[in-house]
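Subject: Re: docking follow-up (glutathione)

Dear J.,

Thanks for your patience while I sorted out the input files. As discussed at Tuesday's group meeting, I've set up the holo structure prediction with glutathione included as the bound ligand rather than trying to dock it afterwards. The sequence and the ligand SMILES I used are pasted below, so you can double-check that they match what you have on your end before we go further.
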Amino acid sequence: MAAILHSIAGSRSFRVNWLLHELGEKVEIVPYAIMDGSLQHPEFKAKSPARRVPALELDGRVLYESGAIVQYLCETRTGHSLMPAIDSDERSGWLQWIHYAETIGAGVQNLNMQHLFLPKEWMKSPTVMGIETKRLAIALKAVETALQDGRSYLLASGFSAADVMMGFTLESASRYVRFDGYPQTSQYLARIKARAAYQAAEAAEGPQQFYTQDFYELPEA
Ligand SMILES: N[C@@H](CCC(=O)N[C@@H](CS)C(=O)NCC(=O)O)C(=O)O
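The structure tokens for the complex came back this morning:
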């Protein structure tokens, strides 16, 4: 039976969509939109109490939290190399990146709120936008540093689910922080976007719903 993914195109649900494609699992996507009230339907609330995507129906369960879903999929599916073994030296790094993707994700979310969702100009705070952009730029440095030794992916052993968590997040972060100062990260992002499963997942969910510009400049403070 196909997994049922409750999703907004271009949101964190892309991580789950992409991972399911990497695993070769069937996925049926139930689409929502960020601003049309569809996340508020009682039926969806029963699947995701904070009314957020992703939520995934699989194996007779309903799961929310993208990182937990990614880890669950890695732990319950076999025949892949998306997660280092529990006694591997790389396991702690894998866990760190899985969760660090949400440190970067939180920064992006704060900037999405300021740049995209606050409906009136007077509600936006150039001070908050400036601080959040700086904090995001600092958080991204850890990724650039990790890639300095020329490795292709976050783990030296190769592609893993940590790249799935991080990859989506970097794509969104690049709307707010110019990646010119992050050459390794730039190449890394291009590398993961070239993956067949990434592209198949993009095609399955359709155009992202968040951004109408490639880059959002900071307003004058
Ligand atoms: N930590 C959660 C965050 C989920 C989340 O905030 N999802 C966003 C889309 S990226 C959402 O559904 N936002 C709707 C809202 O805030 O109303 C996860 O990783 O699944």
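A couple of observations from a first look. DSSP finds eight helices and four strands in the chain. The helical segments are 13-23, 42-45, 66-76, 91-117, 126-146, 161-173, 183-193, 196-205.

Let me know if you'd like me to rerun anything.

Best regards,
T.
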